[in-house]
Amino acid sequence: MKTLHLIRHAKSSWKDQTLSDIERPLNKRGHESCRMMAANIYGIGGGIQGVFANVYVSAAHRAQLTMQGLQHALIQQEQNAQNKRNKKTQLDGTEHISWLVEPDLYTFSWQELLSWCQTIESNPTSADMPHLTLVGHNPALEELVSVLCGFDYGTTGLAGQSQVIEKFATGSYAQLQCNIASWAQLGRGSAQLKYYIKPKDFQ
Questions:
Q1: What gap in Å lies between CA 90 and CA 113, rounded to an integer?
Q2: For a Cys-Cys bond, which of 12, 160, 181, 191 suits 148, CB 3.0-4.6 Å?
Q3: Which Gene3D superfamilies does UniProt cross-reference here (predicted)?
Q4: What is the CATH number of the domain that holds 133?
């Protein structure tokens, strides 16, 4: 059994029209959603040993700022809790969270995301990886969830549905339980959506 964690970058800014798509930063709302979502993603995702164990982030600036924002929020919340209670909390160790920037994750294609996941364990340092976290983009994330849960995206699936998540909102998190022994086996119908949370859930 494997667990796939998917995080869509937080709301980005279009203010500076001279920037290319990959260079765009987060806007105020995006930074705020990172603060709202951090502890919830940490708790649902299993913390440092789960959602933050093996994190790969798109090369887009907004995706990297999202991951930085999540970690910063966790560190701040941990420090605030320690100051109040003078002891360690469940968020202890969040300063050690690390991630890798992966250029191939700057994609809007679910097929490319799937192919990337299927080859992750070909790297000896990534062998036996029970948790995998991607910080990326729509429509790739939304469509990947639908396909992995057994739907033909864009066509009619089970119960007349064509997708599992109607809209994978910016700053949102999805967790999929994958009935596979290795990431190479990841494919259509191999997963079930266990959790999906979005910033609006915590406003």
A1: 32
A2: 191
A3: Phosphoglycerate mutase-like (3.40.50.1240)
A4: 3.40.50.1240
